[in-house]
Design goal:
The chain is α/β, with parallel strands linked by helices. Helices cover 42% and strands 21% of the residues. It has 5 helices and 6 strands, in the order βαβαβααβαββ. Helix 2 packs parallel to helix 4, helix 3 crosses helix 5 and helix 4 packs parallel to helix 5.
């Protein structure tokens, strides 16, 4: 994004609910560097994307996992919000990079809320991956292309 020549917008979904999270947010701001305009929006991501997206801007959404947590905590209809986001992304001018976590690779959570969150995150990731032209899984700092622009899904 840095070398694109486009204006860069960082859409942050995190909220500073405690001291540890405030430190994480401060660290992210410090390491982001110059040249980013930050927009903080924990819930209204679709409206914020619609407002901020432009052909001359590159948007980085960090992250869908925190956005999902915020939606669930607020009692929102997560499936409807995921569909709204997917629809928005299909028509968004300019590049958008979305960060999300894959939480289904670890242990099965021992609480119903944990299992609901894990399942909802998996469905959100699937919905968004279907709506965008590319999807990359990063493990150990290495990219694994799950979906490349203008191509079929890679084989295992």
């Amino acid at each position: 994004m840095r070398d694109s020549g486009l204006a860069r917008v960082y859409l942050a979904t995190a909220t500073a609910g405690d001291a540890e999270m405030r430190e994480r947010i401060a660290h992210h701001r410090a390491t982001r560097g110059d040249g980013w305009r930050t927009v903080e929006e924990p819930l209204a991501l679709v409206e914020t994307l619609a407002r901020e997206a432009a052909p001359d801007r590159a948007l980085l959404v960090d992250c869908l996992t925190l956005w999902l947590s915020n939606l669930m905590h607020a009692g929102c209809d997560v499936a409807a919000e995921a569909r709204r986001l997917a629809d928005c992304l299909r028509h968004t001018p300019g590049p958008v990079v979305l960060v999300s976590n894959e939480v289904g690779l670890g242990l099965v959570p021992d609480t119903p809320l944990g299992r609901d969150f894990r399942d909802a995150q998996g469905r959100l990731n699937q919905t968004i991956a279907a709506a965008v032209p590319a999807a990359v899984f990063i493990a150990a700092g290495l990219p694994l292309w799950l979906k490349r622009p203008n191509s079929e899904r890679s084989s295992p």
